[in-house]
Specification:
Number of helices: 32
Shape: elongated
Strand content: 15-25%
Helix content: 25-40%
Amino acid sequence: MSLTHSEQDIKHSWFGHFFIGKADAVKLSASGISINRTKGGFFAHSRSVNKVAADEHFTWQQLDSPPVFTLSPLGYLLSFTVSGKAYQLPFLSYFAQHQFGNEIALLWTNANGARIAELVAKVDKILAHTYLRESRLAMIQTRIAREYQRWFPWCENLPLAANLHTVLARLKQIHRWTRADVKQLREDYIQSQLVKFADYFEHVESNPLTEKQRRACIIDDNNNLLLAGAGTGKTSVMVGRAGYLLKSGQAKADEILLLAYGRKAADEMDERIKNKLGTEDIKASTFHSLGLKIIADVERAKPSLSPWAEDDKAKELWVHNTLETLIEDEAYRKQLFEYFSRFYYVEKSPFEFEVEGEYFQYLNDNDIRTLKGERVKSFGELYIANWLFSNGIEYVYEAKYEHDVRSIDFRQYQPDFYLPEYQVYLEYYGIDEHQHTAPYIDNHKYLESMAWKRQLHKQHGTKCVELFYYQHKNGSLIGKLEQALQVFKVQYAPLPDEAILATLHELGRVTELAKMFSQLIGLYKAACLDEHGLEEVFARATDAQQTRKAFELLEPIITRYEQHLAINGDIDFDDMISKALTYLQRGQFISPWRFIMVDEFQDISEPRARLVRALRDSCAPHSKVQASLFCVGDDWQAIYRFSGADVSLTTQFTHYFGPTAQSDLDLTFRFNSSIGQVATQFVTQNPTQLSKDIRSLKQVASPAVSILRRGENEPPSKDEPSPNPLEQALTAISARISAGSDKLNSVPSVYLLARFWFQLPDKTQVNQLKAKYPKLKVECQSFHASKGKEADYVVIMGMKTGMRGFPSMKITPPILDAFLPKTETFEFAEERRLFYVALTRAKHRVYVIADMTDVSPFVTELLTKDYPIEQDEFSTSLVQRLFKEVKCVRCSTGTLKPRTGNFKSFYSCSHFPLCEHKEQGCQLCASPMTRNRFAGFKVCLNEACGHISPLCNLCGGDMLLKDGRFGPFWACRNYRGQNLPSCTNTLNKAKLSLPSERPKKHVS
C-alpha cells in the first residue's frame, strides 16, 4: 500500500476503540502525520499528559526521526519526538506495525532526504573551498551527529533510492571522522591551494616562498601560531598571506587587520605590501592607532592622547617633579627616608649562601651601599651605618686601628666602624645565637679571630662595642646599638632632612626611584586591580614588606597622575587599551576584520593579548562568520619582560586562545649552520622553550663563533700587536675579507653589540675605528636594539659578571617584579634568549670578546659544555687560558687578578674589596700559581718555569722557604708570633718530597 498520493488511517485496537470511542487513531499522508485524539497522549520524557488537540498535524520534517511501533497487551504504541519533545499514542491496531511500519519510514525518508543531501553537499563544499577550522569542524560534527542519530541504524535495512543511499554513506563516513582523517582533509586542501596558487607564491616576493612559508599563508584555523626563527622570512609570510587571502577571494582588503608594535614597523609593512601586492588598501596598524580607532568609532570623537603615551622621558620627568613635590610633605619624606634606609635593597642572609664568593657576588651585583655611598659587607653593617648617619654620629667605615699591629705577613687590623669623636670602635660579628657562622666560613677560625680582637682591645685599653648577626635577624640590632652608645655618652644629633635628601640626590636614588615609579604606573593600571587583587600582588611578591612600603610611596603619585590626565582631558596608552577592550566586550564596537594578523607576538603583554582575543571574538549579532587569528612570533627571541611582555602567551598560546594550528619556519636565510648550531644549542638549554629545528641555507664545515680571550687592559704582544681586543677582532675580520673567506657582495657590515650601551665605543671612538678600518661599515647596537637587524659580522662585548654584566645579576626590585609577568623558573631565561638574539644577528661570523678573569657564565658555558666554537683563532695569555686554575682560595668564585702595589706585584681576588684575599706570584717568575694540580702544593702555571711550593697542611696557607739553624725549612705565612690567630707549622725542606709532572727548570 502506497501513501505517496493518498491518505491512510491507522485504526485503534478493540480496546482503544472501546476506550476512546473512535476507530481511527492516526492519519498518514505524504505531507506528515495527523493525530486524531481528544483525550491526549503522553509526553514520555516528563511522564505528564501532553494535551494534543484533535487532528493536530506534524510534518515529516518536524519529526526528529521516523515514528516507532512498540507492542503492548492493549495494542501497539506509536512513539515519536518533535524537537526533542516525546509523544506516545497507545491502543493502536495489532496489525499497525505490519501494515504501516515500512511505509512510515519511507514517507519520513522521502521528506527528509533533501535536507541530508544538502547538509552533506555543504560539508563537501566547505572542504573544497576553505581550510577546515576547528570552529567549523565542531559545527559540522554537531550537525552530522544529529542527523546520524535521526537516520541510523534503522535506515540500513530499507530499500532506499540510490542517490539517498550514497548521501547516507557519505554521512556515515563524515560521522566516523578521526583526528587523522581531519588532518588528511586539511592536508588535501593545502595541497590543492599550493597547486592552484603556485605562480602567485613564486613571484609575490623577490625570491619564491619556501614550502613552509606557503603553507603558513594557506593554513587558516581559528587560531594560528607561526613560530618563525631568526632570519626565516616571517615578513614575507605576513605579506604573502595578506595577498593570498585577497587573491583567493577569501577576504576583502578592509577585512584584514595587520598589527605591528611600532609606527616604524607598521610603515615598513605598508611599504612592503604596496611594493609586493600593488595595493594601498591594506594598512598595518599599531596597537595605539587601533585603540584610538575603536574609541573614536564608539564615542564619535577621537580621544586626546597624553603626550606621555609615546614619550617615556617626559613622563619620567613629570614623575620626578611630582616626587620632589611630595617630598616637601614631612610625613611623605619620613616614609621615603625609611624606605631608602631599610627597604631599598632586597636583603639576603649570608647564611643562605654555600660559598662566600657567591655572597660577595650578590653584594657586588646589587651594589649594596650606605646612605653615605660606602660599599659594605653585610646588611647588618648597612643598617648600623645608615642609623649612625641619620643620627648625625660621625663614623669611619673600616678605619685602621689606632695601634700598629701589622706584621710581615698581615695587614693592619681594621674594625668595622670607628666613632672618632668618642674613640669607640664597633665590630659586627656574623654569628647566630648558637655561635655559628655562615656555611662557607671556618667557624673555629672565626671564633679565634673574635677572641684575638677582644684580646687586642683589652691589651691596648680601647673601647669596642660588639654587635651580632642574630641581633639583626631578630630586629634588636639598632636597639642594642643605642643602649651600648649610651654607656659611652654618645650624643645624637639627627641630621636635618635637607642633608639626608641632598645625599640621596647625590647618590641618584631619587632619580632612580622616579624612573621605576614611571614604569610602575603603566604596569599597575594595566593590571586593573581592586583591593583584593592588590593584596594578592603583595602576597606573591618576593619581599612583601618592601613591596608594600614602595607602593605607599607610589600610590599618591598614581592619584596625581590620574588627576592630571582628567584635568587635561587626556588618556594614556593603558586607558586606551582598557577602554577599547571594554567597548569590544560590551558589543559597542563590532570588529569589521575577519582576518587578524599580529607580528612579533612574543613581545605581547597580557592586556594587549586580551584586546586581540576580544577582537577575534567580536562579531555582528547572529553572524556565523568568525574571525581568524594569525600570530607570528619566536619565543626564542622574547626579550621584553621588563616592559610587560609575557613569553608564556606564546609558549602556552593554546591555553590562552584555544585550539591552535601551530606551524613553523625552520629555514633561515641569515646565519650559517655553525652560528645556528651554537645559538640553538644555547637557547634550548631552557626546556620550556618551544622545540624548533632551525636549518641554515648556508652550510659551513668549520666553527663560526670565535672566542677572543683577552683583558681590556692587557697590553699588545709580539703575537697580538692590536692595542685592545676590539681592534684585534676588527683586524681579524679585515683579514677574512681580504682573503675572500666569506664571499661578500657589498661593503661588509660589522655590528658591535653589548648588553648595555655604555659598554660600547662612543661616537668619537666609532669614527676612529671607521677611519682605521675604512673597508668596514661599523655600527654599535645594544642587544635589544639589534633585534630584527642583521650584519655580516658581529663582535659581542661586555661579557662580564655582575650588576652591569651579562647576564645581569642585579635583582629586580620586588615591587616591579610583582607587577611584571611571572618570573620564569629557569635561571636567566630571558638573558639567555637575549644572547641568542645577539648571536643570530651575524650572517658569517661572531666574535665574542671575554676577559676570563671576570667572565660571563655564558662564555664559560660555551667553552666548557662542548659547543662547536673556535677557541684557537687568537693567541691567549697564561691567565686567560688557565683562568679556572687561579680561583680565589678564600671565596671560591673570585678569580685572582694581577695587580701592582706600591712596592711589588701580587694577585688579588676579583671580588676585592669584599674579599681581601691576595697572594704572591711565583717566587721565581712572578707568574700565577695554582692549587689544583697536586693536593697540598702550589704549581707555577708558567710552563717554562713550573716551580712547586708546599701549602700548610694545618691552615692551608702558603709556605715560605726560610733559613734556620738546622738548614732551610718551610714556614707557614700565617705565623703571627704571640698574636692570635697564629699558625706555627713548619716543614723540613730536606724531608719534603715535591711532586713532579714533568722535568722542571726550577724546583725549590
